[in-house]
Amino acid sequence: MQFGLYAPVPHVTVGSPQMARSIAGAAAPLPDGGVDPGFELARDVLTQADRSGFEIILFAERHLGADLEAWILAAAIAPLTQRIKAMVAVHPTLWHPELIAKMAATLDRIARGRMALNLVTGWNVEEHRMFGGDELEYNDDRYVRAEEFIDVVRGLWRETPFSYKGRFFPVDAAQLLLKPATLEPPDVFTASRSERGLEMVAKVGDWWFVDYDKRVANEDEYFEGVKRAIADMRARAGRHGRKVRFALNPFIAFGENDAAAMDEVKRLLSGPDDDQRKILSRIGPATLAGCIGRPEKIRARLRAFNELGVEFFLCKFVPDVEMVKRIGDEIIAPLHA
Asked: Which positions ≥6 away from 299 have C-beta within 8 Å?
């Protein structure tokens, strides 16, 4: 059982005063000698996560916004940690696979073999057009492109020179003279829910962030949905002669009971003009994983998912050092024991 967290950046972080200051000042120069408050938050939270037993950091990619760039942030954090792995998001629309193969190998060597890729196939139309991509909206070609992208990256890690007859990424005798740090190449994590997207996961993914029916109304329905989704993906991957491992991203919050924990979450995430629907939208369906309440309840829930086959939990929570410590002490340490 492995545990991870999101690197604090604006589009995945709520309830943090430091992140609010980073966003407010992002378009202005920093004071002399100053460091972006968002970087300070990421440094403090992620180095504590390294000490508290978390295994993976997801550095999410967002170009249109006040987010620090994911690859640069990952490279800045990696030397400050000892054991935690950097999983960096990449979208095949916005990057070329030869370049990512080199960047990933570089980060893997800086991090002493602690690097992974998060393959992203969704889209933000405005962002993609502004930063040089095309979204292929409602077009299954984006999954074909993603498969080719991973084929090329893995091929360049494996051999040089490398050639590939791809529809989107033809490669002619490309040379990558810098390889990843270990013989076993970095893992590829991905998420998708469409029929063609699930086939992409089955063909090229090492890990799948399990998707489920968003119409579920309670924790039991959520659990059954995850169970069905895992069974389906195992069958899909088997048809391609592969195995895929499973990840989940539950929202975690502590309290004497479920209601008290949820009240604390709402307090942390609420602004002066927010109604309940807006507050809950910031948490999303991840609350239905049932990881809100007393620590022993959360541990039992995670054990149940683990028995289904979920090996990695990417935890969502309001990021601060004390919450990281508490998850380490009350969730990770007992489950690792």
From this structure: 330, 331, 334, 335
Model pLDDT, residue 129: 77
Cα angle, residue 299 at apex, residues 293 and 304 outer, rounded to 5°? 115
pLDDT of residue 120: 93
Q: What angle do CA 123, 13, 327 make, to 5 degrees?
A: 120
Question: What is the C-alpha to C-alpha distance for residues 195 and 176, in angstroms, rounded to an integer?
Answer: 34
- Those residues whose C-beta lies under 8 Å from the C-beta of residue 266, and which sit 6 or more positions away, are 276, 279, 280
**Which value, in Å, is the radius of gyration of the alpha carbons in the chain?**
20
Give the span between the Cα atoms of 41 and 132, in whole angstroms.
30
Cis peptide preceding 92, ω within 30 of 0: no
Phi, psi of 180, deg, nearest 5: -55, 165
- Render pLDDT for 168-210 as a digit per residue (tens, 0 to 9): 999 999 999 999 999 999 999 999 989 999 999 999 999 999 9
Distances (CA, A) of 254 to 53, 249, 290, 297, 325: 18, 16, 11, 10, 13
Give the C-alpha separation, 257 to 294, whole Å. 6
Query: Which of 18, 68, 35, 44 is closest to 323 using CA atoms?
Result: 44
| 201-247 residue pLDDT tens | 999 999 999 987 777 878 899 999 999 999 999 999 999 999 999 99
Using alpha carbons, select from 183, 228, 234 the residue that is nearest to residue 208: 234
In terms of Cβ atoms closer than 10 Å to its own Cβ (0-12, 13-18, 19+), residue 137 is: exposed
Strands (E), 233-302: 245-248, 253-254, 292-293
For residue 61, pLDDT over 80 is answered with yes
Containing 57, the helix (H) or strand (E) segment is strand 56-59
